[in-house]
Amino acid sequence: MNITLELPSELERELANEASQLNLPLAEYILRVLSFRPFLQNPPKTGVELVTYWESIGVVSSRTDITDSQEYARRLRDQAEHRERA
């Protein structure tokens, strides 16, 4: 289905900025935002429900470049602890 939609320029800029931060085309980002609605209407209440949701939308195992998640988490934590303060 194709829909043409006139967005206020401010909203378009915000969405375009968010999409570029994720390296996504604007149309794909908007589609992801709209498909997220059911999650907002009935959010997970437990950790198991949250992981099940992440699995259902493909978040789990989406970072194939991370082969050792614990080591990756240690590096992120180390970078955060040693970053320069503004």
Briefly, what is this?
Helices cover 59% and strands 0% of the residues.
**Envelope shape:** extended
From the structure provided, what is the oligomeric state, counting identical versus distinct chains? single chain
Main β-sheet description: none
Please compute the radius of gyration using only Cα atoms.
Answer: 17 Å
Q: Mind sketching the topology for me?
A:
Elements: H1 9-21, H2 26-35, H3 37-41, H4 47-56, H5 69-81
Helix pairs in contact: 1-2
Characterise this structure.
With 86 residues, this protein is mostly helical. The protein folds into two domains: 7-43; 45-86, no CATH class. Helix content is 59%, strand content 0%. The protein contains five helices and no strands. α1 packs across α2 (26-35). The longest helix is centred in the N-terminal third of the chain and has 13 residues, at 9-21.
Keywords:
mainly alpha; extended; 86 residues
